[in-house]
Amino acid sequence: MRDHDVLTAVRALAPALRERADEAEELRRLPDATVAELDRAGFFRLLRPRAHGGLAAAPEVFHAAVHEIARACGSTGWTAALLGVHPWYVALLDPRAQHDVWSGDDTALVCSSHAPTGTVTPVPGGYRLTGRWHFAAGADHARWALLGGLVSDPDGLPLDMRTFLVPRADYRVDDVWDTVGLRGSGSNDIVVDDAFVPAHRTLGYTPVTTLRCPGHETNPEPVYRLPYAALFTTTVSTVMVGIAEGAYEHHVDTARTHPALPPGRRVAEDPFAQVRIARAAGEIDAARLQLARNTAELYAVARAGGEPTVALRARARRDQALATERALTAVDLLRENAGGSPLRSDGDVLSRAWRDLHTGRGQAANDVARALTLFGRDAVGLDVRDPML
């Protein structure tokens, strides 16, 4: 299987994913059939290393697949994107951790919650982990979880921010996800009660941000030399833009035949509707083009064996956050001209897109002001230090 074969297979799944959007919302997680079909299509292997049966695909291929899924169903796009990007992170870990995940279960999926909300206690050979982690999309379908934690000294002063890889046997999924948007993402809580995590299943933020991870020993493919902050945040924004484009396409198709006021005219003939459609399309195009440009430049640097500059990293974060903002702007414009239909909660496409986007906006990666501050500081010559850069 080649990476572009996966992209073709994912595109073929779009009609079924679109039809299951209501079911996903009712279940508050993805239907099992959806996860099985994405797995058979090879989607979850795109960013898995070749050493473990993956494709180590170029990031633009992965993001193209994410975009197609999100166009069909926002919740499916969100969940698939996060479950799909985590094999990339596992590839950065000690080779023993990679073996733990995939040697016994070739289809194992990994969810995550990186905010350090639990308690970490260093012990001989590793750490003990206790606590509750929130917003783990796709947790019901995962066999492992990547959980963030802060390691402190005996006086309580923070020493290190780390990620801990924990097997399903050591945590439970608490069903708390009941929201207005992204309802089908199943972003439930992960609860851990004093689990031991061996040292080889942890990774600090410093090696991740400096692109010097233990997993690089066995995974030489250039995709693993991308900055985590750029790949992860761009993945999240790709979902948002995909949702907006799906809503745009639905709205334009509807506008071609839908009657408008005054009676006897179609929405398509309304010049104000035409302006809003044009502006929405411009916002979506601008977002896609900037995301693609930054990803291509970052990947070119990785393929050449170099390291991206702070300026390029900051620009990637700037455009990623702005892409999210543009996606929301586009759908808000379309709602202005859609009458009362988007106010319904009975599966209206535009209504669901609006709810999904405004829910996804709350993800930490989509904090526009924070991302723009990083770019602005670098632009005026100030030092920039941030784990999300």
Blueprint of the fold:
Elements: H1 3-19, H2 21-27, H3 32-41, H4 59-72, H5 74-90, H6 95-102, E1 110-113, E2 119-123, E3 126-136, E4 144-152, E5 158-167, E6 171-174, E7 188-198, E8 202-204, H7 205-209, H8 228-255, E9 259-260, E10 265-266, H9 271-303, H10 310-336, H11 349-360, H12 368-379
Parallel strand pairs: 1-4
Antiparallel strand pairs: 2-3, 3-7, 4-5, 5-8, 6-7, 9-10
Please characterize this protein's 3D structure.
The chain is of the alpha+beta class. It has three domains: about 100 residues, Acyl-CoA dehydrogenase/oxidase, N-terminal domain (Butyryl-Coa Dehydrogenase, subunit A, domain 1); about 100 residues, Beta Barrel (Butyryl-CoA Dehydrogenase, subunit A, domain 2), CATH 2.40.110; about 150 residues, Butyryl-CoA Dehydrogenase, subunit A, domain 3. Helices cover about 50% and strands about 15% of the residues. A four-stranded mixed beta sheet has the order 1-4-5-8. Strands 2-3-7-6 form a four-stranded antiparallel beta sheet, with no helix packed on it. Strand 2 and strand 3 form a beta hairpin.
CATH architecture term of the largest domain = Up-down Bundle
Helix/strand order, N-terminal first: HHHHHHEEEEEEEEHHEEHHHH
- State the fourth-level CATH superfamily of the largest domain: Butyryl-CoA Dehydrogenase, subunit A, domain 3
Radius of gyration: 21 Å
Q: Helix segment count?
A: 12
Q: In which order are the strands of the major sheet placed?
A: 1-4-5-8
How many individual β-strands? 10
